[in-house]
């Protein structure tokens, strides 16, 4: 693992250690000294990568405070830390409810129910950890009770959507969406209980926090709840704030998926959780979808209208796979626009919580504009579910950069990354740990003497050994083949998402046609290709398609690593010769340069295939050659007429993606291993930096490289060989 990640993983773990209070973790050292509901969930996810015991303990201690009606409280107060936060137990008076747990101090509201997702993740990361199954068995009925509570008490019309009755229940406390319902509450100051805010003692600037106007309404609502002794039926009759929120319900919906899998794992029936999931997903996509905004909005049960405010919460149905494909496409256009920071825009980080172009957008105020780690962490997974891999990767890249460059803050400025709110914030640290583990520490490719020997003696796999020869004049074959490859691109490659529909391809007529044409390659002499652009397009397209052909024909499931020496063994017969993927890449396109993993050049002195070597080689090919894996460039068709522009686009896309991370504050950069493997092609260190400089879109980073090119530290990222499925 790279040095930068190793250092910051240690820092993140140290933050969680410092915030550990003995049985759970406080969200932040001073601002939030107790245990918070969804914070504990995110924290346990981070810990599950290295300390299963504490991850499980975090969740168990939270559920020890579950109310007897199933409600999981927003805050579990630490009796030893009272006196520094508002409101605390004396204000909540949760004991007025017959359901509150005796002897445990809690608030009287709940929060987004992430816990089934967390427990499943702990289980998966625990692998064979002793006691993990009993943990699962203990948690299952409690989470069932939590979800039952939400569907029983918070879904009065049995729609599949749970309402929240306080902005604190949303987790996104002062989101602009709550302005309309909160303004409706006319608070008479002298009728409001007296209170003193404590949050402002712990931040540098009060404009980072909600206003007093908001706090009056937060207090008004708590007062109303306690007056009704937390009886849901009574509260519902008078509460002016009853909202079906897309964020809360998407998390509930996604949690039902995990709950169903947990049920199966311990031999219980998943049917209830599955039907909850289906009902909530259907309700989200019908009731919460705003046709004209092309976005999900919160529904206000008091005014019976959608609240037409576009915040990042409106994208959350992606996380639960609750959006239809058509809705997801519209959401993506909105999400990937200047309103919420477009892909490679260069002057912003990830997805801010509110539309940058709206008047009320506030870059430093809490949930009214800044970037939050947890929201983006969930959205990255949502984008991934719908196949928006490039955008998902770019989000994760930014999420990894923010704490490294600016500190483990609570939230961040989406334009310049400045950290706001509390430093040493637990969920920022925890989700950073999760991202590094999930994104950059995937399985290292197999090594060792056994692998080496099996590669050495592995047989060639000739993919075009069929006897059907297409009825085409050999000189016309290249054109037909290119046409066929373009058709495959149009039908089965998602160039925007960087993905290939291997399943669709396998059974298609287009793929059959393509394979037939490859049989004709045996009668084709590449000498008849003329001009550098035509040759480049031919060999690049052929390389990309031999890889796809082999993945489909050999039935590869997860990674090209399933076939030892894949790139050396899969071959096409072309004219009188055989060309493997490696021969095309290193022999032809890289000008017969030695590959990084081999002591010799691909074409020896007497090899007649030297006639096809292309010199000088063009380093941009490394961003056009697709090796069927997540870390390589997104697949496309290269057209000889526009190939130089296309190669520029490919290079720009790669340099501005998560494969090139730059940390000015750390005086270093993390690069894809492609730059290390082929450093000669780029002109070693100086050439690599020039290349990156030329294609970077962000001016500040370019200036940083210009000023520090001789001293900055370069480290490399692990290459992800999982299939670009
Ligand atoms: C913030 O909310 C609390 C009230 O719950 C507060 O402002 O005092 C929110 O960011 C919330 O999502 C978070 O769980 C909590 C603790 O980090 O702080």
Strand content: 5-15%
Low-pLDDT parts are 442-453
Largest sheet descriptor:
3 strands, antiparallel
**General shape:** elongated
Radius of gyration: 28 Å
Number of helices: 28
How would you write the strand order of the largest sheet?
3-6-7
Number of strands: 17
Bound molecules: (2R)-3-hydroxy-2-(alpha-D-mannopyranosyloxy)propanoic acid
Instruction: Classify the helix fraction into a percent range.
Output: 40-55%
The end-to-end span amounts to 25 Å
Provide keyphrases for this structure.
28 helices, binds (2R)-3-hydroxy-2-(alpha-D-mannopyranosyloxy)propanoic acid, mainly alpha, 725 residues, three-stranded antiparallel β-sheet, single chain
What does this structure look like?
With 725 residues, the chain is mainly α. Helix content is 45%, strand content 7%. It has 28 helices and 17 strands. It has a 3-stranded antiparallel beta sheet, with helices on one face. Strands 10-13-14 form a 3-stranded mixed beta sheet. A hairpin with a 4-residue loop joins strand 11 and strand 12. The two termini are 25 Å apart. About 2% of the residues have low confidence. (2R)-3-hydroxy-2-(alpha-D-mannopyranosyloxy)propanoic acid (2M8) binds next to helix 2.
Task: Summarize, please.
By secondary structure, this protein is mostly helical.
């Amino acid at each position: 693992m790279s040095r930068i990640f190793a250092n910051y993983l240690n820092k993140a773990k140290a933050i969680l250690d410092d915030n550990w209070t003995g049985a759970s973790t406080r969200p932040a050292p001073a601002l939030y000294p107790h245990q918070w509901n969804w914070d504990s969930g995110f924290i346990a996810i981070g810990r599950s990568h290295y300390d299963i015991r504490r991850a499980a303990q975090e969740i168990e201690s939270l559920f020890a405070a579950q109310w007897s009606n199933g409600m999981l409280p927003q805050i579990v107060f630490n009796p030893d830390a009272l006196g520094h936060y508002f409101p605390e137990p004396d204000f909540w008076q949760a004991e007025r409810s017959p359901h509150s747990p005796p002897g445990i101090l809690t608030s009287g509201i709940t929060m987004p129910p992430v816990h089934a997702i967390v427990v499943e993740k702990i289980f998966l990361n625990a692998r064979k950890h002793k006691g993990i199954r009993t943990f699962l068995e203990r948690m299952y009925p409690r989470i069932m009770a939590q979800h039952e509570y939400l569907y029983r008490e918070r879904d009065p019309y049995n729609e599949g959507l749970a309402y929240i009755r306080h902005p604190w229940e949303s987790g996104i406390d002062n989101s602009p969406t709550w302005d309309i319902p909160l303004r409706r509450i006319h608070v008479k100051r002298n009728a409001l209980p007296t209170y003193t805010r404590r949050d402002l003692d712990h931040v540098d600037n009060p404009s980072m926090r909600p206003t007093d106007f908001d706090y009056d309404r937060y207090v008004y609502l708590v007062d109303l709840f306690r007056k009704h002794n937390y009886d849901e039926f009574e509260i519902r009759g008078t509460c002016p704030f009853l909202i079906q929120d897309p964020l809360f319900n998407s998390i509930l919906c996604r949690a039902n998926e995990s709950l169903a899998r947990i049920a199966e794992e311990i031999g219980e029936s998943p049917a209830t959780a599955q039907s909850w999931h289906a009902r909530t997903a259907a309700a989200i996509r019908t009731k919460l979808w705003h046709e004209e905004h092309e976005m999900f909005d919160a529904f206000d049960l008091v005014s019976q209208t959608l609240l037409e405010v576009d915040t990042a919460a409106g994208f959350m149905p992606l996380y639960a796979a609750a959006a239809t494909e058509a809705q997801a496409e519209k959401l993506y256009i909105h999400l990937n626009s200047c309103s919420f920071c477009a892909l490679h825009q260069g002057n912003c980080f990830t997805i801010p919580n509110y539309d940058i172009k709206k008047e009320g957008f506030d870059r430093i105020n809490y949930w009214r504009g800044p970037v939050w780690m947890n929201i983006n962490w969930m959205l990255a997974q949502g984008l991934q579910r719908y196949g928006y891999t490039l955008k998902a990767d770019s989000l994760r890249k930014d999420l990894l950069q923010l704490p490294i460059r600016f500190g483990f803050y609570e939230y961040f400025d989406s334009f310049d990354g400045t950290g706001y709110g509390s430093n040493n914030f637990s969920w920022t640290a925890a989700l950073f740990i999760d991202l590094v583990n999930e994104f950059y520490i995937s399985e290292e490719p197999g090594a060792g003497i056994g692998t080496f020997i099996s590669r050495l003696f592995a047989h060639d796999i000739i993919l075009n050994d069929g006897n059907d020869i297409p009825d085409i004049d050999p000189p016309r074959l290249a054109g037909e083949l290119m046409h066929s490859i373009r058709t495959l691109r149009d039908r089965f490659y998602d160039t925007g998402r960087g993905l290939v529909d291997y399943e669709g391809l396998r059974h298609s007529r287009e793929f059959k046609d393509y394979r037939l044409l490859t049989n004709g390659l045996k009668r084709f002499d590449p000498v008849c290709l003329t001009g550098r652009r035509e040759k480049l397009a031919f060999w690049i397209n052929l390389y990309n398609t031999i890889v796809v052909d082999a993945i489909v024909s050999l039935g590869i499931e997860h990674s090209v690593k399933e076939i030892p020496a894949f790139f050396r063994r899969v071959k096409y017969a072309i004219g009188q010769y055989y060309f493997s993927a490696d021969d095309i890449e290193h022999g032809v396109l890289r000008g017969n340069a030695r590959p990084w993993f081999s002591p010799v050049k691909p074409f020896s002195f007497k090899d007649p295939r030297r006639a096809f070597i292309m010199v000088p080689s063009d380093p941009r090919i490394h961003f056009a050659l697709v090796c069927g894996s997540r870390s390589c460039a997104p697949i496309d068709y290269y057209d000889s007429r526009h190939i130089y522009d296309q190669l520029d686009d490919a290079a720009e896309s790669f340099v501005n993606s998560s494969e090139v991370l730059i940390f000015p504050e750390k005086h270093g950069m993390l690069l894809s291993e492609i730059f290390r493997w082929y450093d000669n092609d780029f002109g070693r260190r100086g050439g690599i930096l020039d290349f990156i400089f030329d294609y970077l879109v962000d001016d500040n980073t370019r200036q940083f490289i210009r000023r520090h090119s001789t001293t900055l530290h370069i480290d490399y990222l692990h290459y992800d060989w999982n299939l670009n499925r």
